[in-house]
Description:
Layout: H1 10-62, H2 86-96, E1 105-111, E2 114-120, E3 126-129, E4 136-140, H3 144-152, E5 163-166, E6 185-186, H4 195-200, H5 215-221
Antiparallel strand pairs: 1-2, 2-3, 3-4, 4-5, 5-6
Amino acid sequence: MFKIIKGFTMAEVLITLGILGVVIAMTLPGLMGKYNNKIAETRLQKFYSIFNQAILQSIVKNGPPESWSYWNNDIKDEEGNSINRQEDNKKSFDLYLAPFFNISSVQEIEISGEKYYLYYLADGSAFSFARHENRDISFYPKNAEKCLKKSKAQEPTGGVCSFIFSFYPLNKATEWQHAYKKGLEPFMYRWNGSMEQLYNDATYGCAKADNGGYCTAIIQQNGWKVPKDYPKRIAY
């Protein structure tokens, strides 16, 4: 007696593949979102730690930050436009902080005729200073050049692929109270201490403003974890 081996018909195979495709399409974005969040969480916390360690080491060598010739504030040209201070920022960083960092490479790029420097760390993340001063620092967990180019093309990147910090311990004014006499901190300029403002402030709120200025602070306030109600989708 012959044994009959039953197989799948072509229709059954196609139906199964279709179901698998739907399942993958439904689950992959969620998995990618969790992966991207994890990269941001791990690298944000690490960057915060190593930058502040570098500040402390520099203080031992160079004295308190208020005595440093590090600070490059806004300078306007005759037409009232902010001058690009990337070269000054690089000199300041190289003198006071770079000796205490493990910088993998420094990339000089030009976007729309403007020069920028990207400082890469061993884990593939990078950071850059603001175009016109060096108190504000953008951190990129991954694909820094791509993110920076998007931001200069007016695409919303704050809290998505870039996260803003501040190092400005000099100013006693109320709007800088969360940075005064501190090291590197998430950007909290004019923050009144409420979570509602971190989310919904019209100028810097993570949910309202394209610059996502307060997004970094939201993650820090949640123990360097992206909260479930985080208003943006982190992507690189």
